[in-house]
Amino acid sequence: MFGAYIALTKPRIIELLLITTIPTMVLAQQGWPPARLVIITLIGGTLAAGGANAVNMYVDRDIDALMERTQGRPLVTGIIEPRNALIFAVALQIAAFAVLWAGANLLSAVLAFSAAAFYVGIYTLWLKRTSKQNIVIGGAAGAVPVLVGWAAVQDSLGWEPVVLFVAMFLWTPPHFWALAVKYADDYNAADVPMLPAVAPMADVVKQMVVYTVLLVVSTLVLWPVASLGLIYGIAALVLGAVFIWGSVALGKNPTAAASMRLFGYSITYVTLLFGAMTIDVFVEHGIS
């Protein structure tokens, strides 16, 4: 039963969100932030994202039952009652707000709660089932952790976290559409208008390339805005070029296997890019 509740939070998605949070905190601090603050921020962010994901599963339990990829989720199998899942989700949100407010600051708590509210209210309840641009707009929620990480350190926002937010916002469509290419039949079965399920593959790839190019541009804008060095700049250029090439290559070989390779690379891309940003901060400031 414990494992089922953990599954409600979609831990793999949370892990990806946290990958962007710690490097952003390092950038905001210009070094390692206090360990206590990092732990508090990670706990608060995990609780907030987990609560939002649990509400998403509560709302989507009907269409999850129709899609092969999601038929093993705990609300579909019946191992958890819907009412209990909703109570669990609300409790996580309350705990997240309290942890961030008490351990970091009110701004970070409000930002985390706003991301959860946007994910549930705008994406899950409205756009997911009604618009082929669902993940484009709804994906903004997944870009908020960089704002939370920065706010936890600085108790304010600035151009650096805004540019990072834009980068993650632009990263989400090509990342998710790469996955959706493989599961287009699932989305069709559930009548969810995810772009790869309702548009020709050529149009999907064209939009993926556009978003990827804009993503790479935004990461290069961060270079001077955040006063980063060559380590970050070279990484942004090389990693971005590979991402663009992969998106173009998918158009030439639009198979499920190729889309999943691009999906896997999109995760590697974020991990390495934010890792390079972290290393760059340490090198530029001589931190060992």
UniProtKB/TrEMBL annotation:
EC supergroup of this enzyme: transferase
Record's keyword terms, sorted: Cell membrane, Heme biosynthesis, Membrane, Transferase, Transmembrane, Transmembrane helix
Pfam families: UbiA
One cellular component term from this protein's GO annotations in UniProt: plasma membrane
Predominant localisation class: membrane
TM segment ranges: 12-32, 38-59, 85-103, 109-127, 134-153, 159-183, 204-223, 229-250, 262-283
Pathway, per record: Porphyrin-containing compound metabolism; heme O biosynthesis; heme O from protoheme: step 1/1
One MF annotation (Gene Ontology) recorded for this entry: protoheme IX farnesyltransferase activity
Topology in membrane: Multi-pass membrane protein
Membrane found in the keyword field: yes
Swiss-Prot/TrEMBL GO biological process terms: heme O biosynthetic process
Reaction(s) this enzyme catalyzes, per UniProt: heme b + (2E,6E)-farnesyl diphosphate + H2O = Fe(II)-heme o + diphosphate
Enzyme Commission number(s) of this protein: 2.5.1.141
InterPro entries: Protohaem_IX_farnesylTrfase, UbiA_prenyltransferase, UbiA_prenylTrfase_CS, UbiA_sf
Cellular localisation: Cell membrane
Function, in words: Converts heme B (protoheme IX) to heme O by substitution of the vinyl group on carbon 2 of heme B porphyrin ring with a hydroxyethyl farnesyl side group.
Note: Carbon 2 of the heme B porphyrin ring is defined according to the Fischer nomenclature.
Family classification: Belongs to the UbiA prenyltransferase family. Protoheme IX farnesyltransferase subfamily.
The protein's name: Protoheme IX farnesyltransferase
Organism: Ilumatobacter coccineus (strain NBRC 103263 / KCTC 29153 / YM16-304)
Lineage: Bacteria, Bacillati, Actinomycetota, Acidimicrobiia, Acidimicrobiales
